[in-house]
Amino acid sequence: MAMDRIYLDHNATTPLDPRVLEAMRPWLEGAFGNPSSLHWYGQRARAAVEQARGQVASLIGAAAPEVVFTGSGTEADNLALRGAVAAAPLSRRTVLVSAVEHHAVLNTAKALSREGVPVAVVPVDADGRIDLDHLRARLDETTALLSLMRANNETGVLLPVAEAAALARAAGALVHCDAVQAAGKVDLDVNELGCHLLSLSAHKIYGPQGMGALYVRRDTPMQSLVRGGAQERNRRAGTENVAGIVGFGRAAEIARAELARERVLFASLRERLQGLLLAIPGARVNGAEPRVPNTTNVSFEGADAEGVLMALDLAGIAVSTGAACAAGAPEPSHVLVAMGLPEARVQTSLRFSLGRSTTEGAVDRAAAAVREAVARQRAHAPTP
Ligand code: PLP
Question: Is the minimum distance from the CB of 152 to ligand 1 under 6 angstroms?
């Protein structure tokens, strides 16, 4: 008999929503056209792309022409950092990033640093919060860009982008916000956040993988990374992924329509799960409120997280030890390390991220399986 699986790793990726597939289907089956072509086929594809651009823009309170479609959230982050630095005056080249950014931002900053761009890292406290005083002290007339995520992918902690952006703007710097994990989970408005650039990814909101977007506020100086044709108003060359863009647009529309209902639902399911997990002796939550409603990161003292993850997988329950790209890699989570958590706690931490398929029954079954897996892990392979 097929195993009844429970997926609690929605921060890694989400399944394609059937409504999104329906919207994409014509563009996968028969409809086609290059949006740059002048004839009927081209104009039909152009109209589909522009409708989706409007849908994505609506999710974040932007104007449609400010949305640039990219091949992933990672590409959007790369374009934001590299594009802004390349367009900045030579006297203003420093990039500031928080210590808990996704690798898409951190490794881009690292590469820029190797290329001679000054980069500074803003620390976080033990709760995963950014230190605004430290940020204020780092900002000056040489700062080109501050890159700060809205929601952390590993802990779910919400970072104070609006407050940080006000400080950065006062210093004359541009602000980039990686909102990949915030979209569909909390309200997002580029004007309230005060950012110039904002990254999104379709596959975190039940859209297709390999689709991202970068919001670029009107009149923001930015150079393109991919050179070629004039697509995306000269900001990202290459013939558009029409099916992917259409799917992203529909996913954004659904996320916007369901946000108010889902955030309440996810919060109550997450509290239920977290309560059950915290009833396990030696369990502690990593990261403090405010957090996105679907995520909790919990450490189980003395129980190696990889061992627990594998045992849960055998029981049909999918969770994560942190960022998907870091899973399997020997390095501990840079996010939990940046929060100053001791190694023993980092190594025993698991991320649970809920989504549209999550039910109370699934939460209860998962929590019981975690309790058992943790007890077994402690008995058989205690971490020192
Ligand atoms: N930024 C954050 C915060 C993420 O969680 C992710 C994906 O895990 C990305 C960026 C990268 O997005 P993509 O998977 O579309 O490249």
Answer: no
Which of 56, 176, 201, 206, when mutated, tests ligand 1's pocket best, judged by the most ligand atoms within 8 Å of its CB? 201
Q: How far is the CA of 228 from the centre of ligand 1 (A)?
A: 25
Task: Write out the residue range of the structural domain in which residue 149 sits.
Answer: 18-254
pLDDT greater than 50 at residue 325: no
- The DSSP annotation for 29-88 comes to HT----TT-SSHHHHHHHHHHHHHHHHHHHHTT--GGGEEEES-HHHHHHHHHHHHHHHS
Contact 144, 92 (CB under 8 A): yes
Is residue 240 domain-shared with residue 328, that is, in the same domain?
A: no
Instruction: Give the per-residue pLDDT at 80.
Output: 98
347 lines ligand 1 (CB under 6 A): no
Mean pLDDT of 38-44: 98
Using the atom order of ligand 1, give the atom closest to the CA of residue 74: 16
pTM to 2 decimals?
0.97
For the chain, give percent helix, strand, coil, nearest 5.
Answer: 45, 15, 40
CATH number of the domain at 74, please. Answer: 3.40.640.10
In Å, the largest CA–CA distance within the chain is 69
- Would residue 325 show up in a list of annotated catalytic residues for this protein? yes
What's the number of domains the chain is made of? Answer: 2
For residue 174 the two structure tokens come to 């541009």
Q: What is the pLDDT of residue 3?
A: 80
- The answer to whether the beta carbons of residues 286 and 344 sit under 8 Å apart is no
pLDDT at 324: 46
Q: Is 73 a pocket residue for ligand 1 (Cβ < 6 Å)? A: yes
